[in-house]
Structures are given as structure tokens and as C-alpha cells.
User: Fold this.
Amino acid sequence: MGSLENGVLPLKRDPLLKSLSRNERNNSFAQRPRSKFARFMVLKKLDYLQWICAVAVFIFFMFVFQMFLPLSTVEKDSGGFLKQKEDNFGGELKNFLKEIGGLDFGEGVKFEPTKLLLKFQRENRGVNNVFVGGSQKVVRFGHRKPQLAFVFADLLVDPQQILMVTVATALRTIGYEIEVYSLEDGPVHTVWKNIGIPVRIVEANSDKKIITDWLNYDAILVNSLEAKDAISGFSYHSLLQEPFKSLPLIWTIHEKTLATCYKNYISNGQSQLIDDWKTVFNRATVVVFPNHALPMFYAPFDAGNYFVIPGSPSWGCKLQNSAAVLEENMKIGGDNDFIITITGSQFLYKGIWLEHALVLQSLLPLLAKFPVDDTSSPHLKIIILSQDLTRNYSSAIQEIASNLNYPNGTVNHAVIDEDLYNVMSSTDVVIYGSFLEEQSFPDILKMAMCFGKPIIAPDLSIIKKHIDDKVNGYLFQKENMEELSQTIMRLLSNGRLSSLAHNIASIGKHTAKNMMVLESIEGYASLIENVINLPSEVASPRAISEIPSKVKTEWQWGLFEDIPDRKYVNRSSRVDNFLKKVEDKWNSKENSVDNSVDDTFLYSIWEEEKSIQTTMARKRREDGELRDRSEQPRGTWEEVYRSAKKADRNKNDLHERDDGELERTGQPLCIYEPYFGQGAWPFLHHKSLYRGLGLSTKGRRSRTDDIDGPSRLPLLSIPYYRDTLGDFGAFFAIANRIDRIHKNAWIGFSSWRATAKKASLSKAAEVALLEDIQARKHGDALYFWVRMDKDPRNPLQQDFWTFCDAINAGNCKFAFSEALKKMYGVKDNSTCLPPMPMDGDSWSVMNSWTMPTKSFLEFVMFSRMFVDALDAQVYDEHHESGVCYFSLSKDKHCYSHVLELLVNVWAYHSARRMVYIDPTTGTTQEHHNFKTRRGKMWIKWFNYNTLKAMDEDLAEEADSDHPTRRWLWPKTGEVFWQGMYEKERSQMRKQKEKRKQKSKDKIQRIRNRTHQKALGKYVKPPPENETVIDTENVVAEMKRFR
Assistant:
């Protein structure tokens, strides 16, 4: 309306126009160019009064139109609509509804996880179309069950524990294995133990770090905001760190507290704290909420991964005596009062006050049943229970009640966050007064039913799904408010609830106790099925329809009956305290940073650094002067050149050696531990026998002598090959110019995952291994300490090739055959698969073994050619789409599981001894002895001379032809062949001849220079005043004296 008022012409003419005479005004108008509007005004001779009338009519119609809009409300106390004191206020509301065709707010705001659903569809479509060239199909073997980890902040009794116990019970019936982790112990520990689920208590905030290999699980379910430390804890086990960063994570949030605190964080400028929470929300694969309102409250943290699984046990259903857990801080009504509570939706919209007014109008007939003057009869009390809309909403409610002629004190306003449980425990009837169509059943209605209160609600679609009229509640048509009046009158009998109302409330309580169990169980089972990507050795869970009906129809209340102290915890207060601790921690961190920046402190550092630089400069000058005074040894230019090149190579390796490095120098063996990311740090050894090898520069340990893999092998800087090669990237990095970094006679590798499974070498096994190596008991042998027959992936004790197929979607044998055929140039269609007989012995898995350094270089030479042939098969499709026929779904690791078993094929067919060393006791046992290998080894194929010749052929091609095609082999290590010696010798000979020729040319140029002949001998004349001496006489006299 303001824009309309600004556009109205003024009622009074301009005083300046009045001061002018009529002639002057005419002259002034004649002098100015007239617009079309001005000419129209002059020619038509329209008076200002006609325009004023037209504008007034327009404003009147706009006012009438604005009055008939249902969402246009006056929120201030001074609004004229609320201040009417007429007796026909209720009649005006009825006429108003008739004119607008009833109160219909539509479906309102809807939450749809569009991005997440599209992601699930794409992944499912990709899994169904995993083919390579239309010929290779993937196969699931299903040797073990899928593993899930449930993570809690504590094990106290609350609705979330009942929900997760029910979900876990249902998931186990269709084939899932579950393990529980908790940051704090509690009485629910007994419940999990009774249903056969192991529980592990860990302390996230203590100095003791959580040593957990999360890769053992196919998915992780984290519950509550308090379990944030399990996701982004301050220790190295954090799920935000590699290699756990890509693990499916489902985070369930039931609390609204963080969304409420967001505004305070913004106003206080705590941007770092907000970014920390956003990082955790982004890390979760899916964030699950129990209703459709919470995702909208948490909209500032949304990363496109929100999902809603409706349903959760209401703790009001299990409270036998609400006063036992609720503080009696507010007494609502007297003992004889009849209390009616009007509640509504969690969403905030402008029509709320109108809904409350309509319900209050429908309750007007109750005033006749509860006279105010009669002190012996019950009094009527009506409580409007809603969100804290505005500070003056209570005054607005009182104004509406006054207009409807309610007695003073009959209608009151209460806030849900402050008075919910007190109101619910005291009220007699609960009326749901919201007409907004929602996607999930209102939680406040379910709580009222749990408290045994009869409910009256409009016939919304989501409410009719769970409430049957006059069975477990009452329904009325939202277009007919008179039906609400009739319903509330039928509930009363002599100023109290009728027996029928009590029966309906009792049935409603039973309904609410096990409401939406089916939706919750099927929702979680379906979500987990869409989120996890199971390897080929893991069995698929059975269909959701196979869950027993008894499990899907009721929450597992009975499992909590045996808990001695089953008092429900106040989760809201615990979450408040947790958020306060997190906020204080961030504030203290910021304060410590601010306090550390002190001018005096910075000046002292600058002074100290300045003195150090001055001292070093003086020492360098003195050393230079002493060097100039002393004799320096002279050598040839070749020696100087070699010294300079050696210094250039070693300039990056200059560092102070620690004790571990010095001890390692004198040992016969060094075991390298490849790792990727900070999540693997707790599993790495700190002994001199071991040395870490980081596959990424970013995730390397500080203050250690760990090897930087990408600097040793630039191929590891490419994320695709770093993930695909796995531990073989570390093998290639060490073998590349190995003499610069490894100077031990033996070399070994140990997987950090073997340490996590407690399968690494003990102290006794390390001593036994070193003694066996020094005594040369088994000679050139492969020692391994992680056996295939004890691998959890091989519970059926299958043979080598069957196990390899099981962990590679049934395509291991095909890949081996095709790679070997490409390596050796076999053109026919025959199968080229080396035999790996099942003779009662076992094989090495998880890349945990040791061998002589010379044998390791031979193995790497074979592996480089094999990896190149294997990569040529799968690179194009895997790099473009992420699909690899070694996995049932998109897998960035692709053929790393094939390479895991490659060392067995090479050691067996190259006639190496294979010795198993027990990781606990250190006892050794030779497997696959030579007697059982006779006639089965492909020695010619794996002979060193054969492999060396093939390696030199590839090096010659790479060095001479310089092929432009994509070729992996030259990037995996050194390119060297015999011709490179001759090429370098020839280049040196040419350079030497070139230098000699330059010297000869220089000498010849000097000799061939043209010299200017002397023009004559110059004799200096004697001075005029001196006597000319007879030179001949002087010479004769001198000879005589001699």
C-alpha cells in the first residue's frame, strides 16, 4: 500500500502556482514543451477532484482484496483487526471462511531428497550394467556376511537406543553382522550383549587413541550429535581422514539443538566452528532425520545428503510416572480444571493465528458447560501450545480470546520448548489445530497419545493413515469447523471425559507405542542397501520382505524391561552440554592463538634469528678465508663433474639421522610399511626394523624418516594410479634407483591392516626371522606371515585360483591369462594360466612378506610388465566410468586385489622357497617344497634371463622409438638396457672429440694470425747539452779492467 500512497497526486496545489497570475501560468506553460499526458490533461480539461476520486476507489478495492487474503495478518498489537470489540467477531470469521471457500493451506513446503535419489539410481544402474566388451560378467560369491558398525555417544536408555536395537534385530534376520562402538558405557550395554551383538567401549577424548580399522566394515551408522567425536575426533582414527574417507557413513540426528544454536554462532562470528560442523555434515554419505521438519531446520548445513526415515519410539510411551523425570516447575490449572491443549505444526507460517482463532471459536460452546461463577464445578482452561513465534504472540492470543468473549484467564499461551511435558502431563484433551498437509505424522500428537490423552485432529492424509475416527482418536473435516464443536461436546460427561473417551485414549496409547515401526525398519534396510557397495566375496542381504512380521510391527520394548535403572536420559540437556563443550574448546583454541601472538615474543624471536644469521655469515667468511690460504687438491674435470653431480643428487637427502636410521643401517633387513592417510598412523611400527612409506605427500607422518612415495615415483602423484596400484606403488617406488635409499641385503613389506588384525610380527617372530636370515637357513626364500587359509575372506578354505576369483568378481583367472599372453606375445586363444596346486599348504596374502633385495628387484621387473599388460585391459573403461570387471560396483582400487596374490605366482614358478613364519611364536615352516613342485613350475617363463631380455626390449623401445601411445611401463621405474651404455659412451666420445677439435681450432687460429712487420729500429737521440761518449773506447776500457 505504501507504493500506492506515494503515487497519489497531492490534494493541494503547489503554493508557487498560487503566487503566479493566470497569465504568467499560461505563459510558463506555453514556454515549456508539453508531454502527451500534459496535453491530455489540458485538452480534456479534467479536474483534480476526478483524479482524487479515482485513486480513492482504487485504494478501497485494494484494501478489500487485502482483507480477503488468508495469509495476510497483522502481527502487531496495534493491528485494527485484532482490536475489534464487536460481539459478532465469530460470525465474521464464518463469513470470511465462506467467502474464501474454506481454509485450505495446500501441501505447504515439501522435502524431497532429489540429489540423493538420483545418486542411488545412477549407482544401481551402473551396477546392473557392469560388463567389459559385452563378454565379461561379474559374479558374487558371498563367502561372508556384510559387516556394519553402530557408533553411539553413550549407552544410556533413550528412544534412539530402542530404535537402533529394533533396527539391528531386523537387519540381523536378513543377513547382516553388526558390532557396536560407544564413547561411554551405560545400562544398554546389557541389551546389546543379550541379543548377541559385541560392544566395544572407546574413549574418544582421552589420550588413548581409538585403534580401529574401519575398513573391516561395509558401512558405519553414527547416532546423535554427541557422536561427532567418532567422525571428526582429534585423534588419528577420524573418519574424515584417509583411508576411511570413502567409507559409507550414515549419520542419524534426532536433535534440533544445533540448528537452534546456528543463529548464535552467526551473530558471534564463530565461522570456524560453523565450518567444522559443515565439514562433518559433508563427510556423511547420508544424514538421516526422523521427520521432515528437521532437514529444513538444518538447511544451512545441507550438502545434498539429507534423507528422512519417519518413525522413532516416543519416550512418553514408556514413562510410568512422568513426575519422576520431569521437574514440577509450573503448575497448570487447578485440581478441578478441565484443560484443553491446542497444538499444531512445527513449521512457522502466517496462518497459525487464524487456525488458533478458528479452533477457539469452535470451542465457544464449552463455556456453557463450564460456568465461571460456579465454584463447585470444574473450570475450563485452554492452552495454546506452539513455537515461540514472536514476543507478543501471547498478547495476540489474549486479544483473540477477548474478541471471542472468553473470560479472562481461560486462554493461555505456552511454548513447546519450555512447557511441553508439563502441559502434556496436565491436559485432558489435545486438539491438533493445524490444517497444513505434512509428510510425516506429527511428533507432538504421538507424544499426546503416549501420555494417554484423547486427540482430536483434522482429516489430513498423513493423520488418517494412522488414526481411525472414534477408534484410537477423533477426526473432523477441516472444511467443517462445526464438526469440531460437536466432537468436543461428545467427549464430555458431567464436566469430565466420558468413559468412551478414556477407552479411545487407551487404544491410542497402544497405537502410539508401536507406531511407524515398519516404516523405520524398511527405511533403514533400504537405505543401507543403496549406500553400501559390497565386494564380490560378501553375500548380498536377503530381501526386506523376509524380515519376520513380529519384528516389523513393534519396537523392542521388552529387551529394556530387565534393565535395573531404565530411567530415560534427558537427551536435550546432554546435547546442550556437548555443544557447549565444543564451543568452549573452539573458543579456547582461538584465545590461545590470539594470546600467543605477542609483540615482545615476536621481537625476541626476530632478535634471536638475526644473531644466528650474523654468526653463520661470519663463520662462512672465516671458512672461505681459511680455504683460500690452504692448498686445495686438484683433479681432472671428470672428477669435479662427478662430485658435483653426486652433491646435486644428495642435496635433498641431507638430514640429521635419528637413532632408528642409524640402527637400520647395520641390520640385514628393513621392512617397509606402505600407508595412505593419517588414519593408518596408529597401526605403524616405531622400531628401527620398520620404516614407513607414504603413498601421498600430504598424509605423511611428521618428525619421522618415512619415505615420500611420490618423490621416489612421480606416478604416485596421479590419484588414479595411487589407488589402483595400492601397495605395488610402494614396491615400484622403492625399486626405482634402490641403491639410493635401501642398502640392506634383505627387504620386506608389511601391511598396516595386518597390524590392525593383530597378524603382524611379534618381538619373538622378528628375532627369529633375523636369525634365520643371518644363518641362511632357507637361502633365497620368500618369508610370509599372513596366510590365505586364515583370511576372513576365505572361510571355505578354497584353493588359490578360486579364492582369487572370489575377491575379484570371478575374473581373476581371465585377467591373469590375458595379461601373461600379452606379456609373452602369445597370439592364440588358448588359456595361459600357471598352475597353483592345492597341496595342503597355504599362500601369502595382504602383501606381508620379506625376501633378498636382489630377488625383490627381479620380482619388480616381472611385476612392472604384468601391471602394464593388466592396465592395458581395463584402463579405458575404468578411467572413464569407474567400472572395473574386478568389482560388482564402481571401485577406484580396481585390480589391486589381483596384484595382492601376484607374489605367490612369481615365487612358486621362479623356484623360490616359500616359508611361513608364525607371527606370534616365530616358528618357521616351509610350504610347497620342491618335491611337490616337480613338473608343475613354469621355470622358463619366469627365468631371470627371459625376464631380463623382455625388460631390455621394452627399454629399447621406450628409449629409441619414443612411442606416443599411452604406456604405463616406462612410468613404473627405470628404463635401462645394454644399448644405453654404448649410447652414453658414444656421447662421451663425441663430446671429448668435440672438445679436442675446439682446442685444435683455437691453436690453429692463434698460429694463423697475421703479424705486423716492424717498420724500423728507433734510436733515441742524445740530448743537445750532453757530451757524446765514445762507446767503443768505453767498451775497450771495460774489457781491459776485467
Observations:
- The chain has a mean pLDDT of 80.
- The radius of gyration is 44 Å.
- The chain has 41 helices and 25 strands.
- The first helix runs from residue 2 to 6.
